Amino acid sequence: MIAGTAPGRLAKERPLRPEAVARWLSLAGGEGALFSGRMEDTAPLRQAVLAWLEQARDLPSIPQAITDVALSTQPEFDAVVNAVVGAAPKSEHRDLYGKADGDRVPRWSTLLGGSGLGDATRLVAQGATVPVEDVADSFVAFCTAPAPAVEDWLLLSGELPEGTRVPLGRYTLQTFTADELRQLGPMPALHGLQPGGLDLGLLAGAPFVHAPDPDRASDRSGLPWFDFTGPRPEARHWRALLPLILWSPELLHVDAVFDVERDREFGLHPNHVPTTLQIYEDHDGGYEEVEVRETGSFDVTWQQLPRLQAFCAAVTAKIDAVMDGTTSSRRLPRRRALRLERAARHLLQAYQRTHSDYGVWEQEADELHLDYVIALEALMASPNDQHEGISEKIRSRAAALFLTPSLREQVETSVQEAYSARSKYVHGDVLKDQDEGKKLAALRDLRLIVRQVILRWLVLTPCDTEDLAPLLDAAAAGTGREGAVDEPLDAFFRATPPQDRLRP
User: Fold this and answer.
1) What is the per-residue pLDDT across 457-484, written as a single tens digit (0 to 9) for each?
2) Distance of CA 264 to CAs 1, 110, 152, 155, 388, Å?
3) CA–CA dist 138, 150 (Å, integer)
4) In 314-461, where do the E strands start and end?
5) Number of Cβ atoms within 10 Å of the Cβ of 434
């Protein structure tokens, strides 16, 4: 499948019984329709669901006999479908309908699987105590509410205060309570009743970045989606993640990505949430193991939250200003926007492959130099540069962004070592054995330097047709242009400091 095309389906609706098709078509507005199409007439639908759940007590309790496919063949299910047609005609709710024999009729996979009614029916058949009134209300809402927008949700590592809500351009960084997450699904009342379900307590307070997905339409067929949209999530959503990366020196990861349709589907799976076991002492002096979400080291306190909001607003505005160049008629702004995206994607990819401050998979440690050097070159190179001596120019320009002699020296040394490691690796040379601790420490220093270079580049880079490289070359040569670098950085760090530095 070509990247960017619609996800495929691995299953098809089974044929509907002819007599049911004829009845549903007449009710749905076909020739000789028996229904006027008034969406507000939901009482019959609610009663039909309650009657359906009542008769479910007489169904066999073995799971194989009450699958959604088996339930759709029950004669009593016809009444539910008829009521759906009456309350949610196809002219207003086409997402509930699929084609059968050339006509559009309600899809059983949507009504049973997508809505959660099938799960509720099985629970009743197996003798569980089910709040049938709440189930009926949820089913009515599922069928009659407008189709929701599809959203991308990124579960991040880290800990943020309860009630956090930080705008990040078209995205939002937000934490949720377990009850708020429960309400995202089609049947909140069933949560906790189904075996093997996700413990939302694991996600209470977890940071999510979410935004509508303009390339996806709502689908309630109950069939799985498979995402073939291209790059990894940290690359696709870099404009939301980059301000957070630049805020803190602590590692931040995308732990999972979910498709969410509010009040319809919260596509979480237990295996997608990284967890660990913590041991607590109980009242009797014993010990209890509790599964908790792995949070990592990224942490924001209530006291820091206003600073984070101000910083993200400032950085997001600068990212947006640079990315506006993609529509410019001039070559330099377009090129600058592409280079920022490239630098951000490689930095975020390196973050994803760095599982702790001093922890990197041995097979990938040398490859990380590639990501960091590409990110540096993307921002520090100039369209007017010649290939010869490019590494020296990148090194001196990156160092010019740091205004104390000790920091400049550290940056030049780290960048030079990164270029050396990159060159040996890509040319197939065997890298000399290096003390593992020193190697990981050097990678950590390089990561933090690249992060600072990107932030300072964003602060300084013009959004017109002026190139930043000549200013950095002049500052590196000590020609008196240092103030043109110092003053904007000083002003930015005073007004909107990140977590780790108040001054450049």
Assistant:
1) 999 998 677 899 999 999 999 888 889 9
2) 27, 11, 14, 19, 57
3) 19
4) 354-356, 359-360
5) 12
Cα–Cα distance between 117 and 125 in angstroms, integer?
12
Query: Which of the listed ranges 73-87, 187-201, 286-300 does the model predict with the highest average pLDDT?
Result: 73-87
- From CA 251, how far away is CA 106, in angstroms rounded? 48
175 - beta bridge partners? Answer: 207
CA distance 116 to 363: 44
> Is pLDDT of 9 > 50?
no
| Residues 6 or more apart in contact with residue 57 via CB below 8 angstroms | 124, 125
Distance between CA atoms of residues 432 and 421, nearest Å: 10
State both tokens at 384.
């007017």
Is 211 within 8 Å of 151 (Cβ atoms)? yes
73 is written with which tokens? 């063949």
Chain centroid offset of residue 139 CA: 28
Q: Which amino acid is at 389?
A: G
Q: What is the chain's mean pLDDT, rounded?
A: 84
Residue 279 CA to residue 60 CA, distance in Å, equals 42
* Separation of alpha carbons 182 and 194, rounded Å: 13
Distance CA 14, CA 72 (A): 10
Angle subtended at Cα 189 by Cα 183 and Cα 190, rounded to the nearest 5 degrees: 110
Amino acid at 490: D
DSSP 88-137: S-TTT-GGGEEEETTEEEE-HIIIIIITSHHHHHHHHHTT----HHHHHH
Cα gap 153→151, rounded to integer Å: 6
Per-residue pLDDT tens digits for 70-108: 999 999 999 999 999 999 999 888 889 988 777 888 999
- Give the whole-angstrom CA distance, residue 467 versus residue 319: 17
Residue type, 346: H
Q: Which two tokens stand for residue 282?
A: 């109980």
Instruction: Report the amino acid identity of residue 12.
Output: K
| Size (the chain), residues | 504
Going by DSSP bridges, is the β-strand pair 103-106/165-168 parallel, antiparallel, or unpaired? unpaired
The pTM score is: 0.84
End-to-end Cα distance, the chain: 48
Q: What are phi and psi of 314, to 5 degrees?
A: -65, -45
Q: Tokens for 418, please give them.
A: 């990164």
| Integer Cα distance of 376 and 397 in angstroms | 10
Q: How far is residue 108's CA from residue 208's CA, in Å, rounded to a whole number?
A: 33
